[in-house]
Design a protein that fits this description.
binds zinc ion; 295 residues; binds adenosine-5'-diphosphate; carbohydrate metabolism; Nucleotidyltransferase, domain 5; 5-stranded mixed β-sheet; magnesium; ROK_cs; fructokinase
Length: 295
């Protein structure tokens, strides 16, 4: 069975065709310009593809409340051309098939649980460290939603005593995203993360903040696996530093062997690599298909 998938990012849109086993058969991507231009390309890609359902993992904030008049909208995004855009509605109009819709990070968490690093488990979190920091969560088999949806990338963190960087979150300045996203690294050090690989101080500080976010998430959600992706997490030397910092912060309080002894298998890069988001969108499509068949 063919399923459609869209990874709707603030920088680029990735569209793909896959199957119910998470295999990607075909894909394309284009920059996130105006909604009109992007939607035209999306429709062109899926036209005549015989997909049975479509999944969309989107940047946000988005409206996930099915009872809301603005369900399926991208809502108050700072990317102004995209604010108040009815993404699901525009696609549904062209393709009257079941459509699954969730945040980009929830989609990635779903992909990792179905086919990646959290396979066989019923909970995990997926953190992306890129242009922003976002976290998706699955708890007891369900994608976590809420009043709107969690915004765990903006949790508050304790400042490193030697860090004088003010932070660059437009809302909170020195929240986790404001201190540790790709642009925060670039602003603090004057170079992009990919050019700072050999500078140990950069990654010590990065791990100091990311580990606080992860420790908080362990305490709040008790996830069975923690997956960290996104451009910044390509710096593989970050992982052991995060492991050490998380253990130090928890200080033996969370008494499970995955935290105490096997933390390298607990906090890991994506099993699906760069495909987590797109595979997750295939997962959303499949869930929408199954749900529709049960009706
Ligand atoms: P997006 O968040 O837009 O989907 P990315 O996850 O690639 O895309 O995030 C882009 C950010 O990640 C930029 O700030 C960039 O400098 C940083 N980045 C990308 N690749 C790397 C890398 N290999 N090492 C460190 N930082 C990186
Ligand atoms: Zn913030």
């Amino acid at each position: 069975m063919l399923l459609g998938a869209i990874e709707a990012g603030g920088t680029k849109f990735v569209c793909g065709i896959g199957d119910e086993n998470g295999n990607i058969i075909e894909r394309t991507s284009f920059p996130t310009t105006t909604p009109d231009e992007v939607l035209e390309q999306v429709v062109k890609f899926f036209r005549d593809k015989d997909i049975k359902a479509l999944g969309i993992g989107s940047f946000g904030p988005i409206d996930l409340d099915r009872t809301s008049e603005t369900f399926g909208y991208i809502t108050s995004t700072p990317k102004l051309q995209w604010a108040n855009i009815n993404l699901v509605g525009a696609i549904k109009k062209e393709f009257p098939i079941p459509i699954g819709f969730d945040t980009d990070v929830n989609a990635a968490a779903l992909g990792e649980m179905k086919w990646g690093a959290a396979k066989g488990l019923n909970s995990c979190i997926y953190m992306t460290i890129g242009t922003g920091i976002g976290v998706g969560a699955i708890s007891e088999g369900h994608l976590v939603h809420g009043l709107i949806h969690p915004e765990m990338g903006h949790m508050l963190v304790r400042r490193h005593p030697e860090d004088s960087f003010a932070g660059n979150c437009p809302y909170h300045k020195d929240c986790l995203e404001g201190m540790a996203s790709g642009p925060a690294i670039e602003k603090r050090w004057g170079k992009k993360g990919q050019e700072l690989e050999k500078n140990e101080k950069v990654w010590d500080l990065e791990a100091y903040y990311i580990a606080q976010g992860i420790a908080n998430l362990i305490l709040v959600l008790s996830p069975k696996k923690i997956i960290i992706g996104g451009g910044v997490a390509k710096q593989k030397q970050l992982f052991p530093l995060i492991h050490q910092n998380v253990q130090a912060l928890l200080n033996g309080y969370v008494r499970h062997e995955v935290v105490l002894e096997n933390i390298a298998d607990y906090i890991v890069p994506p099993g699906l690599g760069d495909n987590a988001g797109l595979c997750g969108a295939i997962g959303l499509a499949y869930e929408a298909f199954l749900e529709n068949n049960q009706k």
